[in-house]
Design goal:
Blueprint lengths: L1 E3 L2 E3 L12 E7 L1 H4 L9 H11 L4 E7 L5 H6 L1 H5 L5 E5 L2 H5 L4 H17 L3 E5 L9 H18 L2 E3 L22 H30 L2
Parallel strand pairs: 3-4, 3-5, 5-6, 6-7
Antiparallel strand pairs: 1-2
Helix pairs in contact: 2-8, 6-7
Length: about 210
């Protein structure tokens, strides 16, 4: 088990040499796909640039599909694994909430994704989401509780809210009020990057320890 600020995660036998490129896959929906912004302003490209600027030899693969639900993400896990990732960012659930889908079904789908990644020896970061307020308080509470519960159950790193600092901020969102604009993406990346850097440091540390066994 390894831990860092904001959560903890399990190592699954990752063997990464000090000079190897780290492959990170962003498995998500329109928020990672980059809906409404050019590719260079999307989350994967911005995150990769931020990681490299910080000295991390990382490549971020965009596995976001606009409109995707947790069920859609689960159906694409095998495709994600083709890239042989060292780390997968699981950013799903927003569309489940927008459509009022059963939080229990979402929990089952996300749990299956995390189990599949673990079975393949891939570490994961789970990002949280909140349901739209018009879905009602009971639904919202049930929905929000899924993410920390899954992170605890599967022992993965947890980033509580993907849109932290951006949600409900008109200047940081597109006209739909849902998708971040380029300025909003920059805020997300700025807040998320230290978390990923720490995860990569822990992966590197574990790989070094494994190589000396």
């Amino acid at each position: 088990m390894w831990a860092f600020a904001g959560g903890s995660a399990s190592f699954y036998g990752t063997a990464l040499a000090a000079n190897d490129e780290t492959v990170i896959v962003a498995l998500g929906d329109s928020l990672t796909a980059g809906f409404g912004v050019v590719a260079s302003d999307g989350f994967p490209v911005r995150l990769e640039a931020a990681l490299r600027a910080a000295g991390a030899n990382a490549r971020v693969v965009n596995a976001g599909v606009s409109g995707d639900t947790s069920a859609g993400g689960l159906a694409r896990v095998d495709w994600v694994l083709v890239d042989s990732p060292d780390l997968v960012i699981v950013e799903l659930g927003a569309n489940d909430g927008l459509r009022g889908l059963d939080p229990a079904a979402m929990e089952a789908n996300l749990g299956a994704i995390l189990t599949r990644l673990a079975d393949e020896g891939v570490a994961a970061i789970l990002t949280g989401m909140v349901a739209p307020p018009n879905m009602g308080r009971a639904y919202g509470e049930s929905f929000k509780a899924v993410f920390p519960r899954l992170a605890e159950r599967h022992g993965v790193a947890f980033y509580p809210f993907f849109l932290d600092g951006v949600a409900a901020q008109p200047a940081l969102n597109q006209a739909d009020g849902i998708h971040p604009n380029p300025a909003g993406v920059r805020v997300i990346v700025e807040r998320f990057t230290p978390f990923v850097l720490q995860a990569l440091a822990e992966i590197q540390q574990h790989a070094k320890a494994t190589s000396h066994q």
